[in-house]
Design brief:
Prot_kinase_dom, alpha+beta, 14 strands, about 35% helix, CK1_Ser-Thr_kinase, Protein kinase domain-containing protein, Transferase(Phosphotransferase), domain 1, signal, single chain, globular, Kinase-like_dom_sf, Phosphorylase Kinase, domain 1
Amino acid sequence: MSKKKSPNITNILELFLLVSATNEDPQNLEKGLIVGKRWRIIDKLGEGGCGSVYKAALKAESNFVKGGSVLKLEVQILKRLEGRKYVTQLFQSAKKKTYSYMVMTLLGRSLNELFKQYPICTVSTQVRVGINILYGLKQLHEIITTSRLKNMKISYLLNKKYFISFVSIIELEDFEVGYIHRDVKPANLAIGRRGQAIHIIHILDFGLSREYVIRNNGSVKLRMPRTNTLFRGTVRYCSANTHTRSEQGRPDDLWSMVYVLVEMRGPLPWDNIRGKDEIGMAKFQTLDTTLCRNSPKELLDITTHLRTLDYYTRPNYFYIYERLHNVMQKFNYK
């Protein structure tokens, strides 16, 4: 296997660095500082709950974080997602005396930023974004057995017209990733910075993610769902199920995707409601027809499918893709 090339000096500005606080306050790393013998800090981009982000591509956190390392989890997930088109890419990670860091691709603007500029999007943009998010979530969720992959290839041969885009993504994946994101929202979805990547939505920030499978001696099985779990996610975009403190599964990420897509065409039904419990109640009480009133009917088909699923059930990703792609065909979107 060929060794991954290091980014050259022109690419280094396309990366970013995240660093967390310690007792010595390593969040304030000086401009020009070399980290990991390769990464020169160009500028500080901002701060968040788990660390600071610097232009030069580094994400870091304190080695004294209570409750365990978020960075360690992100590194583990990004290693499994190496080479995937719809997620940020990891270049390097390491642990220093007082902090740990990881170096990742610097992406462009988040959907949160773009939606502020363009609060109402076209249906064409809505379904394109939906297909991109779906691809990324499938890459994160999926565990594909060899036999299932063969069956997918057979289906592709029988029906190339509809499978070509979706199966091409499948064939690029490893067979095991197996995580739930648990915080799908516009702020955690971003376009690339240049070239073709500008047209791709990337999923980022896996700090709240959870592995939903157990691996043991080559076998893989679902974790038993917990009851009365801690709340994880963003109130505005998390599934109704999340408000009940139930274990989140693959359908919950897809519900968050639906809420993001709905908001692209108008405000969510709970837009003016305050309070976590009140918003949760609104999600349970809102009819899917009301939720999707400004969207193509295919989005309603997707919510109908999601309501047939539970924690154990694998979503029909191809069906969801097909419904979104149907909108592209119906209106001759290219």
